[in-house]
Specification:
The structure holds two protein chains of two kinds.
Chain A (H helix, E strand, L loop, with lengths): L18 H48 L10 H11 L7 H13 L15 H12 L1 H4 L29 H11 L2 H8 L2 H6 L11 H13 L6 H20 L7 H6 L3 H8 L10 H21 L6 H18 L13
Helix pairs in contact in A: 1-2, 1-3, 1-9, 2-3, 2-4, 3-4, 4-14, 9-12, 10-12, 10-13, 13-14
Chain B lengths: L21 H4 L3 E3 L5 E5 L9 E2 L6 E2 L4 E4 L8 E2 L4 E11 L3 E10 L23 H10 L12 H5 L9 E6 L8 H8 L1 H15 L3 E7 L3 H13 L6 E6 L8 H9 L14 E5 H13 L5 E7 L7 E6 L4 H7 L7 E6 L6 E2 L13 E6 H4 L16 H5 L6 H9 L3 H6 L10 H5 L6 H16 L5
Parallel strand pairs in B: 1-14, 9-10, 9-12, 10-11, 13-17
Antiparallel strand pairs in B: 2-8, 3-5, 4-7, 5-6, 7-8, 13-14, 15-16, 15-17
Helix pairs in contact in B: 2-5, 2-8, 4-6, 5-8, 12-15
């Protein structure tokens, strides 16, 4: 008879799924967006992402070392943050700025709170927000996709803004509100095919609608994420944009344009679905998604900035604990009379 | 009345662990090992422990009562064999830690045999009054044999305030590995049906269902054929339910079969429903028709760590090690011995722990099944993925409750309804961070009970 008999609580068998596997699935789901970024923004774009991944990982490793905690790089969550942060940056961003964003994202956005699972805000969005506040111009300088122009800056320029720059589709729609040229933008300035493939100015990972939908579908099929948050965001944003469009179709672009522009899809499938910073119940997830969808469109249509996904996610992250408390699950047998 | 919704009747939540029943599903019930010394617990049920009626050196006959009820929710115990009382001493109990048992030295090591149950030619439940049936069931010491061990007479006795309208005989056996109920359904079909009719007569229910998970088509077929042959096809309905853990949990089963909800903190009789396990039903038939007390039960000895798994009819009090030895012993890879199945069973350290009325299985698992067991299992922080909420059949927030207990925030744990947890283990099973959610919740319940008693310890 064997000697070592272990005694633990039940259950004694576990499903094989691990946190690492979940993170790996998120990484796999981002591959199409990474490929799109490589096609449209070439080596310069990939360099930004690589710097983000490297500094995110290094920061996590150093923080653990300083806190005398075991190394947690094995759960791949730092890599996920690095990729998402990189994909949410401009291809022309100086690499040193990307590194600063990555250090902030992990150092302040995550490790200060206690590491994985303890952070209130999405770390990648924390890093991006810090960069936007610190280097506003660098963060809003967009290059023309290489397939249209071919003059991407090289990897090591001191001044990345040598390349041809272009406004993003959302900046056009912002101008259109003043110029009353909404319809023109949609019909002529940005052909649908170009928009869906991602041949337009914008953050590295947000431009290709096709790549984002493929990645999102993978996450849904693998059940890594569930449909509620993305659906709530997209439907509420679409309804908001529809109302604006119906009220004034000269000033406001068609709602579909809003769905395919900016970070809405990227945010809906990859940022807002970060389980750590999203509500845990389905009811909470609907509320959370609607807050993000409505707030994004408020910024885009009423506010001063062309894009608002980052602010919307940040706001929703902040109220997440309240949503969770509000949307507390009720036991199947009802609330007990005497607790 | 029966909710089907296109699919088989079921409940919301739950998990699908590998069934692993193939090891023993086709093994006929065999007599267990001949054991010289049996330790029969005085507490094999929920409620007050039995009071010993014998003392050291007393000579006892097989089936003699050795412990009697103390209080309403209690059950007597009987000795399975003739012999001498060696002592009344503490033995390792899977649930209670250590508990009093009557240790009996068997008179002769005669070869154990299987019980024979012959249906009387003129069996008619109507010739017994409900009181007679309840009394016989109580005297025979019958308790829920599905695992909980709640005294059956308490459940089936008529209640004027809440009349019992429905009786569900539970043949789900949703725990992986275990096949004792499955074998009973195939081999003792007639006896189960006789017991079912007696339980129906006792509680006065007009609707009777036998619920069987749809991964046991042979049992469903056998049960239907037997009911048909006995002319009971119209009065007792076999309900195939979806194979999903914990389908056999009575709250879940009532949800699946009747689409009714048992209030949190309440028990099925509160809504007029009685749920009895198939093995319990068989025991009722034995007790009422032949006056035989509950002294034996069928136990599945299984798991990757067992050389020759099987289903055995064993006397209560048989030590686990004797059973394991009878099955060819444990393999070198054996890492955990579990009383019950892998989802809700209790891991034991002391292999001399005796079988009791509620122990349906001994499952020996290897490191491969349990993963890196115990403290070696790599736990990562909760990422709030919500899988535990989706798996919870009671719609609770297991991660919130478990972390509240971990941080000693008992009021938070209560506000998230810790008491509504049925400890099925689904949350721990699905957790990608490998957190012992069920373990924390169980600990929390114990702490809570102690605090309510104003901390006596």
């Amino acid at each position: 008879m064997p000697q070592d008999i272990t005694v633990t609580f039940a259950p004694h068998i576990r499903r094989p799924l691990s946190t690492r596997r979940i993170m790996l699935d998120v990484i796999i789901s981002l591959v199409p967006a990474l490929i799109a970024a490589g096609i449209f923004f070439r080596i310069r774009g990939l360099a930004v992402i690589a710097v983000c991944i490297a500094w995110c990982a290094a920061t996590e490793w150093l923080c653990n070392l300083a806190r005398k905690k075991p190394n947690s790089l094995g759960d791949f969550s730092a890599v996920v943050t690095g990729i998402i942060l990189g994909l949410s940056l401009s291809p022309a961003l100086p690499l040193w700025a990307a590194a600063i964003g990555a250090v902030f994202a992990i150092g302040i956005g995550k490790m200060v709170f206690g590491g994985l699972g303890a952070n209130i805000f999405n770390p990648a969005m924390a890093g991006r927000l810090f960069l936007t506040a610190s280097f506003g111009i660098l963060m809003t300088t967009w290059t023309v996709p290489a397939t249209l122009d071919g003059t991407m800056p090289t990897v090591s320029p001191t001044n990345a803004i040598d390349a041809r720059t272009q406004a993003t589709p959302l900046a056009w729609s912002k101008t259109a509100i003043k110029d009353r040229t909404g319809a023109w933008i949609y019909d002529e300035r940005l052909p649908l095919r170009q928009s869906l493939l991602g041949e337009k100015a914008g953050c590295l990972g947000e431009t290709s609608v096709v790549a984002l939908l493929v990645g999102g579908a993978y996450l849904l099929i693998r059940r890594t994420i569930r449909i509620h948050i993305p659906l709530a965001i997209l439907v509420s944003a679409f309804l908001f944009a529809s109302i604006a469009y119906l009220l004034n179709s000269e000033a406001y672009v068609q709602p579909f344009y809003h769905l395919t522009s900016g970070a809405l899809l990227f945010g809906a499938f990859f940022i807002a679905t970060d389980p750590v910073t999203a509500p845990i119940t389905v009811r909470g997830q609907w509320i959370f998604g609607i807050i993000i969808g409505v707030f994004t469109m408020l910024v885009r249509i009423v506010g001063e900035y062309p894009e608002g996904v980052m602010y919307a996610v940040f706001l929703a992250n902040g109220v997440r604990p309240l949503i969770d408390r509000f949307a507390k699950p009720v036991p199947v047998g009802g609330v007990p009379h005497v607790v | 009345m029966i909710s089907t919704m296109g699919k088989r009747a079921s409940f919301a939540g739950g998990v699908h662990p590998p069934e692993s029943k193939y090891r023993t599903a086709d093994r006929q019930i065999q007599p267990g090992p001949a054991v010289k010394e049996l330790a029969v617990f005085l507490s094999q049920h929920i409620g007050a422990a039995a009071q010993p009626t014998v003392k050291k050196a007393d000579v006892v006959q097989a089936g003699q009562k050795i412990g009697q009820c103390q209080g309403f929710v209690s059950a007597p115990v009987h000795t399975p064999v003739a012999g001498k009382v060696k002592e009344i001493a503490l033995r390792s109990h899977p649930v209670l830690g250590r508990s009093l048992a009557v240790v009996i030295e068997a008179e002769s090591a005669s070869e154990p045999s299987l019980p024979g149950f012959t249906m009387p030619q003129t069996f008619d439940p109507a010739k017994y009054t409900p009181e007679q049936i309840c009394e016989a069931v109580r005297e025979a010491g019958i308790v829920g044999m599905g695992g909980a061990g709640f005294p059956t007479s308490v459940k089936i006795q008529p209640d004027a305030k809440v009349p019992k309208h429905t009786l569900i005989i539970n043949g789900c056996e949703c725990e992986p590995y275990i096949t004792c109920d499955y074998r009973i359904m195939l081999e003792w079909t007639e006896q189960i049906i006789a017991g079912t009719r007696l339980a129906q007569r006792a509680c006065g229910a007009s609707n009777v269902f036998v619920a069987i998970e749809d991964n046991k088509p042979k049992a469903i077929e056998k049960m239907n054929a037997m009911l048909e042959a006995m002319g009971l096809g119209a009065s007792i309905k076999v309900v195939p339910v979806r194979t999903k853990y914990p389908q056999g949990g009575e709250r879940q089963l009532i949800r699946a079969v009747l689409n009714k909800v048992v209030p949190t903190g309440g028990i099925p009789p509160a809504i007029g429903v009685v749920v009895d396990n198939v093995a319990t039903a068989a025991a009722i038939a034995d007790a009422v028709i032949y006056g035989r007390p509950l002294t034996h039960r069928v136990v599945t000895v299984t798991g990757e760590g067992i050389a020759n798994p099987g289903n055995y009819h064993v006397p209560l009090g048989t030590p686990v090690e004797a059973l394991i030895g009878h099955c060819g012993g444990m393999t070198d890879q054996a890492a955990k011995v579990v009383m019950g199945g892998p989802m809700m069973g209790i891991a034991i350290a002391d292999l001399s722990t005796p079988i009791s009325k509620a122990s349906g299985a001994v499952t020996v698992l290897t490191k491969e099944q349990t993963g890196a067991v115990g403290l070696e299992r790599p736990q990562t922080p909760c990422i709030r993925c919500g899988r535990c909420l989706r798996a919870c059949p009671e719609n609770l927030n297991p991660t919130r409750i478990a972390h509240a207990v971990k941080n000693n925030l008992m009021d938070v744990a209560e506000s998230y309804y810790i008491s509504a947890c049925i400890e099925c283990g689904c949350c721990s099973y699905v957790c990608p961070a490998k957190i012992d959610l069920t373990g924390f919740i169980r600990t929390g319940k114990i702490l809570r009970a102690r605090q309510k008693k104003k901390m006596p310890s």
